[in-house]
Amino acid sequence: ADLDLQAVHDEMVSVAYEAGAMMLEANPQDIDTGTKLNSVDIVTETDQGVEKMVSTRLSSAFPSISFMGEETYKPGMRIGPEPTFVVDPIDGTTNFIHSFPNACISLGLAVDRTPTVGVIYNPWQDLLFTAIKGRGAFMTRIRGSAPRRLPLARNPAPLTGLGTALVAVEWGSNRDGPNFDVKTDTFRKLAASREAGGAMCHSLRSMGSAALNIAAVAAGQMDCYWEGGCWAWDVCAGWCVLAEAGGIMASGNPGDWEPELEGRVYLAVRGAPSGQKELVEEFWGVIGD
Ligand code: IPD
Asked: Which end of the chain is flanked by fewer CB atoms within 10 Å, N or C?
């Protein structure tokens, strides 16, 4: 039977609000914290508790839909063509433990490996982003108020290149060898003057949540977002919101557009009447591939 995407979306929104309440109730000072790949790849008991609640609720409401979550992922797992929830219970865990109010739950639904429903909720700002493929993207500030269609500007400005762009980038948790060199090199080239071979962007921002970065690009508050090292649960929900807001997700792994795993490079570019493809080309030109 065909999946009722609206029903799935509505349940995801309800789950996101419950997750938000769990995050607000948790006192980061009292939270048991552990690490995964290294000392800055942090997980808390709240990440695990939220994922448990999310998987329990979504699996009982939609038993036929597969589930993949950051905290229960095991190497070798893949997203198949069947409908799959792709979930990051707390995106921005580092912000969460430091009480920096920029973290969210990121709930995606992939169908045929394509982001098809996206729900992102930042409980500290009571800010909700939602989208269903083909039905537009929306932002609701303050629960119960009227959703606003994304992008927020009715007539978004054309993109005029990296020199006029506000660009989100992230450090992520992988700080080793070539991976770290790519990040620092990219940041340096984006910020450096033209004389120094850089793009001289208006500025760079690192707000600590991949999903909220993509949502900000979808809203038109950032021009683009680059990160090397994202996982499917970081991008699945945001990808749907972005695409429905007229933005594009360019992958640094050409030919591979699926929300797959294992630390990929992503470049999200906001919706604009012109200049998207040119910005992507300029980006790869400046940083090299
Ligand atoms: C991380 C955050 C961070 C980004 C990492 C993500 P987590 O997610 O989004 O900003 O740089 O790549 O993995 O670990 O907080 O769920």
From this structure: N
Does the pLDDT value for residue 252 go beyond 70?
no
Count of CA atoms in the C-beta half-sphere (13 A) of 165: 32
Q: Omega before 151 cis (within 30°)?
A: yes
Instruction: Give distance in angstroms: CA of 43 to centre of ligand 1.
Output: 11
Lowest mean pLDDT among 4-13, 81-90, 169-178, 250-259: 250-259
Beta strands in the chain (DSSP E): 33-35, 42-44, 66-69, 84-91, 104-111, 114-122, 127-132, 137-141, 148-149, 166-169, 203-205, 224-230, 248-251, 264-269
CA of 281 to the centre of ligand 1 (A): 26
Distance 235 CA to ligand 1 centre (A): 10
Residue 75 corresponds to which tokens in the numbers above? Answer: 């190497």
User: Given 3-state DSSP classes, what are the helix, strand and coil percentages for the chain, each rounded to the nearest 5?
Assistant: 35, 25, 40
Residues 6+ apart with CB under 8 A from 195: none
Q: Which of 37, 48, 91 for mutating ligand 1's site (highest number of atoms within 8 Å of CB)? A: 91
In tens, the pLDDT along 67-118 reads 999 999 988 888 889 999 999 999 999 999 999 999 999 999 999 989 999 9
Q: Whose CA is nearest to atom 16 of ligand 1?
A: 91
3-state class (DSSP) for residue 145: coil
Rounded CA-CA distance 124/147 in Å is 18
Helix (H) / strand (E) containing 32: none
14, pLDDT greater than 90: yes
What CA–CA distance (Å, rounded) separates 243 from 39? 34
Provide the pLDDT confidence category of residue 258 given band limits of 50, 70 and 90. Answer: low
SS3 assignment, position 26: coil
Ligand 1 center to residue 210 CA distance, Å? Answer: 6
